[in-house]
Amino acid sequence: MSDKFPDHIDPLLFAERRGALSGDIKIAALERLSGSVLDHGGSVSARIEFSKEGKRIVVAGHIEGVVELECQSCLQALTWPLDIDFKLAVVSSLKEAKQLDDCEPLLLDGDTLSLNAVIEDEILLALPDYPRHEHDCLAHNRSEDADYSATDSQTKANNPFSVLAKLKKTGD
Ligand SMILES: [Zn+2]
């Protein structure tokens, strides 16, 4: 296992050798994903295997890791585990894509494939549109507030963080 995970590769070359790659990818290197998560310091680990089914190049893999999303109810961090399996077939046209039945199409532009883009797409597809804590976090916050007399200062103290989180989210 190597920690170096190449970005651009030749999928045909890997498929003919039945190659496999595994390693870690920094979240900061995934630009679109960085816009959806609060914590950019972490990384995800991925394993990708290449093979040929007939003439078709198949790219299958697994992604694991944890990202921090912003809960859409309370605007606090929400830990979201990733455990993604994917199977893609390289296609060069939409017509070819429509003929696939057992895997998702991977439209290739040119000869090289960006593995970072594949991994990023799979993660973005797996993320919920409206992430929320499983428990009723707003009710939880309300009952906490009721227990303390310093409700106002607490609420104010919390707000800068959600503003910061938003800045962080849109800042880059
Ligand atoms: Zn929440």
From TrEMBL:
GO terms for biological process: ribosome biogenesis. Belongs to the DUF177 domain family. Keywords: Ribosome biogenesis. Plays a role in synthesis, processing and/or stability of 23S rRNA. This is Large ribosomal RNA subunit accumulation protein YceD. The keyword Cytoplasm does not apply. One of its GO terms (cellular component) is cytosol.
